[in-house]
Specification:
This protein starts with a strand and ends in a 5-residue tail after the last helix. The chain has a nine-stranded mixed beta sheet with strand order 2-1-3-4-11-10-9-6-7, with helices on both faces. A two-stranded antiparallel ribbon has the order 5-8. The protein has five helices and eleven strands. A hairpin with a 5-residue loop joins strand 10 and strand 11. It is α/β, with parallel strands linked by helices. The protein is globular.
Length: 217
C-alpha cells in the first residue's frame, strides 16, 4: 500500500519526497490535500518540509488545524508510522505528537548546507540495523530549527531513548544538539534535516534512504 504525503498550501518538498520514495526506493506514494480526511489504504504518512500556510504566526501553528491532521493524530495513536521532515517536524510538535518546539536559529539566519549527524538511538524501526554513534550526512534548510524543551521533557527524551539524531556540530543552537526525536512508542519521527534530498548518489548521497526505507514497515 502507498505512503501518503500531506500537501499544505506552501509545501515545497512534497514532490521531492515523492520522487525519493518512488524514483529511488520503489515505494508507491500519493498526495493528500490538507482538507482530506480519508487515510484508508495507506501504510504510512509523511508531513513534508516547506512553509505551510506561509509560516504565519509561527511554523506549523496554522497547519495543525488542518482537517487532515486530526486523522493523522488518530493514525499515529493507532501505531501508524508518521514522519515529519523540517516543517513537518514543526507541525508534529504543534500537534502534540512530539514534545518541545522549534524556534528561530541561534544566529537568526536561514541555514542551508549539508550536515553531519550521529545516530543517537536505534531502538525504533526508523533506524533498525544501524549502530548508535554511526555518522550520516543529510542537508538542512531552515530558519526555525532550534529545538527547545523544558528540562523535564529533555530528561524524558533521554530516559526513553527518544533522541534519534544529534548534530555533530550544532548549527542552530538546539538543546542537547538534537536534530530529530521519536515518540515513546517509536512510530512517530520528526527531524529537521531532509532525508529526501539525500537519496541519490549523484545528488547529495544516499544516507536519506536509511530513513525513508523504514516507511515500508
Amino acid at each position: 500500500m502507498p505512503v501518503g504525503i500531506v500537501v499544505f498550501p506552501g509545501s515545497n518538498c512534497d514532490r521531492d519526497v515523492r520522487w525519493a520514495l518512488e524514483g529511488c526506493l520503489g515505494i508507491p506514494a500519493r498526495y493528500l490535500w490538507h482538507e482530506d480526511q480519508d487515510l484508508s489504504g495507506l501504510d504510512a504518512i509523511v508531513l513534508p518540509g516547506g512553509f505551510s500556510y506561509g509560516d504565519y504566526l509561527r511554523c506549523g501553528a496554522i497547519a495543525r488545524f488542518s482537517p487532515i491532521l486530526q486523522a493523522v493524530v488518530g493514525f499515529a495513536n493507532c501505531g501508524g508510522p508518521v514522519l515529519g521532515i523540517c516543517n513537518g517536524f514543526q507541525i508534529l510538535t504543534e500537534l502534540g505528537l512530539l514534545p518541545g518546539a522549534l524556534t528561530r536559529n541561534k544566529d537568526l539566519h536561514f541555514i542551508c548546507e549539508p550536515i553531519a549527524l550521529n545516530i543517537s538511538s536505534n531502538r525504533t524501526a526508523w533506524l533498525k540495523g544501524r549502530d548508535v554513534n554511526d555518522e550520516i550526512f543529510l542537508p538542512i534548510a531552515h530558519g526555525e530549527g532550534r529545538y527547545q524543551c523544558a528540562d523535564d521533557t529533555l530528561h524524558e527524551l533521554q530516559d526513553n531513548d527518544s533522541i534519534a539524531f544529534r548534530y555533530v556540530t550544532n548549527p542552530n543552537g538546539s538543546i542537547d544538539d538534537i536534530a530529530g526525536i521519536t515518540n515513546p512508542t517509536g512510530n512517530v519521527l520528526g527531524l529537521m534535516p531532509h532525508p529526501e534530498r539525500a537519496c541519490d548518489p549523484i545528488l547529495g548521497g544516499i544516507d536519506g534512504q536509511l530513513i525513508l526505507s523504514a516507511l515500508l514497515g
